[in-house]
Amino acid sequence: MDITANKHIADWVGEVAERAKPDKIVWIDGSREQIEELREQAVLGGSMIRLNKEKYPNCLLHRTDPDDVARVEDRTFICCKNKEDAGPTNNWMSPDEMYAKLYGILEGSMRGRTMYVIPYSMGVIGSPFAKYGIEVTDSVYVVLNMAIMTRVGEKVLEAIGGSSDFIKGIHTQGTLDKDKKYIVQFPEDNTIFSVNSNYGGNVLQGKKCFALRIASNLGRKEGWMAEHMLILGIENPKGEIRYVCGAFPSACGKTNLAMLIPPEGYRINGWKTWCVGDDIAWIRPGKDGRLWAVNPENGFFGVAPGTSERSNPNAMACTHEGTIFTNVALDPSDNTVWWEGMTKNPPSYAIDWQGRPWTPESGTKAAHPNSRFTAPAKNCPCISSEFDNPNGVPISAIIFGGRRAKTAPLVYQSRDWNHGVFVGSIMASETTAAAVGNVGVVRRDPMAMLPFCGYHMADYWQHWIDMGNKIANPPKIFNVNWFRTDDEGKFIWPGFGDNLRVLEWILKRCFNEVGARESAIGYIPNVSDINLEGLDMDEKTLDGLLEIDVDLWRKEAEDIRRYYGMFNGKVPKELWNSLETLEKNLG
Ligand code: OXD
Ligand code: MN
User: Fold this and answer.
1) Using a 6 Å cutoff on CB, does residue 278 contact ligand 1?
2) Atom 2 (ligand 1): residue with closest C-alpha?
3) Residue 305 above 90 pLDDT?
């Protein structure tokens, strides 16, 4: 493939090349041959290790710089003209100042290197949901990952045609200097820059940069929603498949929920689950007055540690072919990978994520806690038959969730859409004992979008309210908390596949098949309506999980009032109304 006939793309790529001064430009055509050739080059060049060809065909291992292992929220910016438009939850710099800085870093940064041009699509190419981007990068790692996570190549250029409607993305690895790392979105120019990083979430621009930060701006303008949500289809014994979207902050089990395996009793009765997406949902009103969602991605960028045949066999199955592993350990005895939590017994000897010899006695982690697998969605044994449906799937329920030791009950339902927006806006998760200090401190993460909302958070809430006014049959909105603990700090609810018991109740509520009790915070299940068969839990314990501690909720309401105060008078009145109702209900 050579230069495109699209003048907007050709001129812009030419301009980037003039600044970055690569030795060579390679256009990614999306062919198997080209991807295989790049894999081979990466292996020969030493940036990738090829894994056991029988056990892990076409799989590679990559190690990043030890200082470049996660998303960098403090180096992530939304650069729009007015600071106020980025809001108090985003870092901001004026576009002129930021462009000057970034072009300075870009200048000559690809000398001696190859610049790859990746045309990619978020969503099924040519579908009404699809949006296109061009990412130029000097990293083969980015090319190979983008070819898994998105749909890439010539077909994307055909779909763009002569249009200038595409997202421009520039990535240069640079020197990986921590203090010159920038992940920047220019929503008014549909432009993304990532410099001095080569870590997935910062540089696979289709994911957080485009599909959430830029897309949340596009959705606001165009009347749809870009959300940090999984999409899951639940098939009941009658063969009806109903879909839910779920937003959870990190370390709350989103990928596990997206690939959930029903408990045995449910399986025997014919329940099945189908994964449509594990991280991002683009949601639009359909002609039928419902909301319809697609997963704009084409793969999973999952956290490896803790993923096992027990916790998530579907995710494990995803990783056995055509997968890129980043910062996991290598078992040199058979050239396979390992991470903490994968098996009970670690290998007796391994090469750790930094390439150093490791044994179980080393006292260090073999895999980085944020090590990842990039796996094709089509590998997933429970991938939905609707995954490639250009129209998406109709959403019955939206589920918000966080990690709360005491406050939030196992599940509750909002009274209506606007109250549901309130429930999403006050989403919070407690920091765990795994992190230094500050155990149990609540961090608000509205709709799990805190690091990903590309404009003022209060305007985003207003957009949710506006969307609700436009749809005749909105999904019902729920909040779940799998993480209530007992007096000894142990989780009470078993979680994982058993979460289906709660999802069953949620879906029954959506189809008016079950009643509920009113409470100060919303509707709560009647204890007898959650199926406990086959579970070692009595109704009294379940009742405890559904209890609302009025004192804790009074404190919560005070904290929400303080939190809303941060948004310079921009919090929609509907949310204040919900807060006042809550305060009144609590007495
Ligand atoms: C995240 C991710 O950080 O999905 O949320 O990688
Ligand atoms: Mn995510």
Assistant:
1) no
2) 201
3) yes
Whether 429 has a pLDDT exceeding 70, the answer reads yes
Average pLDDT over residues 144-153: 98
The percent of residues above 90 in pLDDT, for the chain, comes to 92
Counting beta carbons within 10 angstroms of the beta carbon of residue 581, is it exposed (0 to 12), middle (13 to 18) or buried (19 or more)? middle
Question: Of 79, 252, 380, 382, which residue is the catalytic one?
Answer: 252
CA of 250 relative to ligand 1 center, distance in Å: 7
Dist. CA 246 → ligand 2 center (Å): 11
Residue 245 catalytic?
Answer: no
Closest CA to 507 of 529, 489, 540: 529
Query: Is 386 a pocket residue for ligand 1 (Cβ < 6 Å)?
Result: no
> 């390439």: which residue's tokens?
355
Where do the structural domains in the chain lie, given as residue ranges?
7-30+71-222, 227-295+387-548, 299-379
CATH code linked to domain 7-30+71-222: 3.40.449.10
Architecture of domain 227-295+387-548: Alpha-Beta Complex (3.90)
pLDDT band at 2 (very low <50, low <70, confident <90, very high): low
Confirm whether 227-295+387-548 and 299-379 share one CATH topology.
Answer: no
CB atoms within 10 A of CB 82: 10
The CATH number for 299-379, chosen from 3.90.1150.10, 3.40.50.360, 3.40.50.10490, 2.170.8.10, is 2.170.8.10
- CA–CA dist 280, 246 (Å, integer): 9
Sign (positive or negative) of CA dihedral 186, 189, 192, 193: negative
**300 within ligand 1 shell (Cβ under 6 A):** no
Q: Please state the atom number of ligand 1 nearest to the C-alpha of residue 303.
A: 6
- Residue that is written with structure tokens 């998303």 in the block: 71
Q: Specify the pTM.
A: 0.97
* Ion ligand 2 nearby residues (CB, 5 A): 279
Which numbered atom of ligand 1 lies nearest the CA of 452? Answer: 5
Residue 201 near ligand 1, beta carbon < 6 Å: yes
